[in-house]
Amino acid sequence: MPCGACRQVMQELLPANAAIQIDGVGTRHLQQLLPEGFELNP
């Protein structure tokens, strides 16, 4: 499983509906891995 920092980077760079393949776990959508990631809205 990706760590929290890696999940945040994926959220910033990948589309919201991106499917992530995790070895030994299966496929998860990015929203499942990080349901409430940080967003900076200046």
In short:
This protein is α+β, with helices and mostly antiparallel strands and 42 residues long. 33% of the residues lie in helices and 19% in strands. The chain has a two-stranded antiparallel ribbon.
How would you describe this structure to a colleague?
With 42 residues, this protein is an alpha+beta fold. Helix content is 33%, strand content 19%. It has a two-stranded antiparallel ribbon.
Oligomer: single chain
Terminal-residue CA separation: 31 Å
How large is the share of residues in beta strands?
A: 15-25%
Compute the number of helices: 2
- Gyration radius, in Å: 10 Å
Task: Produce the secondary structure layout.
Layout: H1 4-13, E1 19-22, E2 26-29, H2 30-33
Antiparallel strand pairs: 1-2
